[in-house]
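Morning run. Coffee first, then this:
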Amino acid sequence: MPMADREKTEDEKLHIRTCGRSDDYEDDNHHPYEPTPYTVLRRASKSGMIGRKNHLIDYGAGKSRAAFFLHHACGCRVSGVEFQPEFFRAAQENLKTYIGDRRGIRFILQDAERYAVPSDADLFWFFNPFSVTILRSCLARITESYYECPRPLKLFFYYPSDEFAAFLMTCDDLVFYDEIDCRDLFPGNDPRERILVFTDPSSTDPEASYRNSGMSES
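And here it is:
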């Protein structure tokens, strides 16, 4: 089955509509809308890092495929942050039809760099949504929340650009934690098909809890 058909089928299982790419709002700081492939989300959900006790922030949520899938698969609470009203409205429409418990998902129409991170948020999802300039501001908000209420944090960066990866590796407020390899899910052996996972510097568990090199999708 072609990938587009598989993605549509997965949407139908959750009773949502998230397929398709949009370049309508692309500029120097904001990247095109493109939902995370379901195969990648499924692999992330099986990493053991996302569970019912977590509150995940989905930055650049778009139509919020990641939010709906991870909530349904892992039981975590999810807050989707989106700055474009069109995508925000699409996410709200999806929430009306979503097959899961809608109380565990909320959406916020706001610029990501101005979003005040809740004190119970401990997981953060990024699918290359914006520039490093905006990312710096997001990380500053996350760091502020962390110092106001210290707790273990994990940040997930899917399909990071070289610029993103280089910045993250030199960021004083983050420590590299793990990498979820997704290259086997797609043809071409694209080195960007991975999820980089970072944690806070004071993490008491610096060892990675998950290694999936060579792991096949089940």
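Residues 204-218 have pLDDT under 50 and may be disordered. Good start to the day.
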